[in-house]
From TrEMBL, chain B:
Belongs to the binding-protein-dependent transport system permease family. MalFG subfamily. This is Maltose/maltodextrin transport system permease protein MalG. It comes from the Bacteria. One of its GO terms (cellular component) is plasma membrane. It is found in: Cell membrane. Residues 69-260 form the ABC transmembrane type-1 domain. It is a multi-pass membrane protein. The chain crosses the membrane at residues 65-92, 104-128, 140-160, 181-203, 239-260. It comes from Bosea spartocytisi. Gene3D superfamilies: MetI-like. Pfam families: BPD_transp_1 (PF00528). InterPro entries: BP-dep_ABC_trans_perm, MetI-like, MetI-like_sf.
Length: 383, 275
């Protein structure tokens, strides 16, 4: 197993910059998740690692070996595709054994009949057969070994794709949104299965997804990307609790972090006419106009007559089982939520259990200031 | 909704169309088994007369039909094999690679189909005479392949376009070279189209007449299409002999089609990638 190092890696498609200048070090045995919206360059970066895309500039090292000029097969990396990419004319057994057959491939295997016999001989050799059957057993595919991909369900096909990757025992597993074609229940089961696979085989995993739940639950570290640039690289906890900028703050979390416009004034933060004391950790923060970032679960809702909070009116209540999500329109405060559909001045709070609040109710929003992070209003960067 | 009446109407329509398609073949068989005396009778004989089967034996004995059929088979199989071999790589290149002149090349391939065989036969004759390809079955195969390769290239290109790129990328990661991918992954996936293309090339070679008539000079290298036409005389045509040869000329082609048609099945790529 090996670590992966990217030094100033860039990719241009004509004038379009897909990957700007990525520096990244993935430790041996790590589960790195490349997270970001569609078109952010995460799949391109993964394909560059695999050798399916050339590198415009920069270097990729696997362990101590430079690999960015090697063909895909010489990099010792396995790739699991979003669309499974199984060979339709081969049985599950042959699909899984295929990388092993290719290791012993000779030019004359192309000769009809003779080549078929040679491939079958390799497939039935004890070493290959045992490895294929052991892999199939691990993935509960034993019963399906002699079936064709078209007869399998989506989850089974994805397991075959995983098997084809595992059987090579590669140094690195690369996965490009492998679960996005599955339904929610199966996705959750496969998520656990891939995490167990990582724990069992212990290789270095690089996993691309746009699903923050997958990223938060599976990754040991996350690289959150936007427009070909890594916005933050850290553990899921770091990314959740200490977002590097407002983009990361709004991308991670459901509902996302609230960003309320404020002003620092003499050790306190002013939101509209309300004045809240800054916690000791933020007491020496310099700057004037800031954005106050606070997660919905760090807000509390109480009666409008309560003091020390921000006044607002409930605009929407959503019950999602164990908790309720309440949207509150602040009476005297502005927000910096620039996504499509975001209502100016509206913040989200989560309340444990079933909330009896009704739209139109006047509330006071209390803030747990120990959970607050501050961002520069001009640059969006964390202060 | 299906009612018995609409079902009956549909079946009747199918029967009419089938009759129109199959009656000439039936008529060919009946005529080949009709005595000379009955050939021009006022009331045509509608059923084959098994007693006239000796007509086939006589045809075998008195004509070179077996030799012609052998030559036709060599030309048809040769045209098929050569066309497929020559079309695979250009089809793959047209489908997968980006290069200067790709559009022009595609158009030129297509444009070859706009030229009728009869127009090309004179220049081809001159070229073949210089290359010593006149009066050889190899030369005839080459001339036929020149017509089928562009068509097959386009047909295969269309099929390769439909092969998901991810399958090829998976193969690259698994250790396949480009040639391994073409031969080991792409061709098996497009096997139904390959079978259809083989049928087209085979029947072109089997049925072709203009080149076979012009480029082949010796009697022993005649193909069945030319041999059959040689019976049509100015003064007389032995209809039942011509029909007997017609039946013999048709049967191998039908057998070939029946052999290949089971490969022309849809849905080979189903399940390889998420649809």
């Amino acid at each position: 197993m090996a670590s992966i190092t990217l030094n100033h890696v860039a990719k241009h498609f004509g004038n379009k910059v897909a990957i700007a200048d990525v520096d990244l070090k993935v430790e041996d045995g790590e589960f790195l998740v490349l997270l970001g919206p569609s078109g952010c360059g995460k799949s391109t970066l993964l394909r560059m690692l695999a050798g399916l895309e050339t590198v415009t500039s920069g270097e990729i090292h696997l362990g101590g070996r430079r690999v960015d000029r090697l063909p895909p097969s010489a990099r010792d990396m396995a790739f699991v595709f979003q669309s499974y990419a199984l060979y339709p004319h081969m049985t599950v057994r042959r699909n899984i054994a295929f990388p092993l057959i290719m290791r012993q491939f000779k030019w004359w295997f192309h000769i009809p009949f003779l080549g078929g016999l040679a491939k079958r001989k390799i497939e039935r050799s004890p070493a290959v057969r045992d490895l294929v059957e052991k892999t199939a057993k691990t993935l509960s595919l034993t019963e399906m070994l002699d079936r064709y991909p078209r007869t399998l369900s989506g989850g089974q096909r994805q397991r075959v794709a995983l098997g084809r990757a595992m059987v090579r025992q590669p140094e690195v597993f690369l996965m490009d949104e492998p679960l996005s074609n599955l339904d929610a229940k199966l996705r959750s089961a496969m998520r656990a299965e891939i995490t167990r696979l990582h724990q069992r085989v212990g290789g270095t995993f690089v996993y691309v997804t746009h699903d923050q739940v997958e990223a938060m639950t599976m990754g040991t570290r996350i690289a959150l990307m936007r427009d070909g640039v890594i916005q933050q690289f850290g553990t899921p906890r770091e990314i959740y609790t200490s977002p590097a900028n407002t983009y990361v703050a709004r991308f991670i979390g459901t509902p996302p972090m609230n960003l309320i416009e404020g002003r620092i004034d003499n050790g306190a933060i002013c939101i509209g006419k309300a004045r809240l004391p800054l916690p000791p950790a933020l007491a020496d923060v310099a700057g004037d106009n800031v954005l106050l970032g606070i997660r919905p679960n760090a807000l509390s809702l109480s009666d409008a007559s309560a003091s020390g909070g921000l006044a607002g009116t409930v605009s929407l209540v959503e019950h999602v089982g164990a908790e309720s999500v309440v949207a509150v329109k602040l009476s005297d405060g502005a927000t910096a939520h620039d996504e499509e559909g975001a209502v100016p001045g509206e913040i989200m709070a989560t309340v444990q259990g079933y909330s009896d609040l009704q739209p139109g109710a006047a509330v006071s929003v209390g803030l747990d200031l120990s959970e607050v992070v501050l961002f520069s209003r001009s640059t969006g960067q964390r202060i | 909704m299906k009612t018995p009446a609409s079902h009956a109407l549909r079946m009747a329509l199918i029967m009419v169309l089938l009759s129109a398609a199959l009656f000439p073949i039936y008529w060919m068989v009946v005529t080949s088994l009709t005595s000379s005396a009955n050939l021009f009778a006022d009331r045509p004989q509608m059923l084959p007369d098994p007693a006239q089967a000796f007509n086939y034996a006589e045809t075998f004995a008195k004509t070179g039909v077996l030799l012609w059929l052998r030559n036709s088979a060599i030309v048809a199989v040769g045209t098929m094999v050569l066309s497929i071999l020559l079309a695979i790589l250009p089809a793959y290149a047209l489908s997968r690679f980006r290069f200067h002149g790709k559009g022009v090349l595609g158009f030129v391939l297509f444009a070859t189909q706009m030229l009728p065989e009869a127009m090309l036969v004179v220049p081809l004759y001159a070229i073949f005479a210089k290359l010593l390809l006149l009066d050889t079955l190899g030369g005839l195969i080459l001339a036929n392949a020149a017509f089928t390769v562009p068509v097959i290239t386009w047909i295969l290109k269309g099929a390769i376009d439909g092969v998901p790129l991810e399958i090829e990328e998976a193969a690259r990661i698994d250790g396949c070279s480009r040639l391994d991918i073409v031969l080991g992954i792409v061709l098996p996936v497009v096997a139904p189209t390959l079978a259809a293309a083989s049928v087209i090339a085979f029947f072109h070679g089997w049925n072709e007449y203009v080149f076979a008539q012009t480029l082949i000079l010796s009697q022993e290298l005649r193909t069945a299409s030319v041999g059959l036409a040689s019976f049509v005389g100015e003064l007389s045509t032995p209809i039942h002999t011509v029909m007997a040869i017609g039946v013999m000329y048709t049967l191998p082609a039908v057998a070939f089609y029946l052999m290949v048609q089971r490969y022309v099945v849809a849905g080979m790529t189903a399940g390889s990638v998420k649809g």
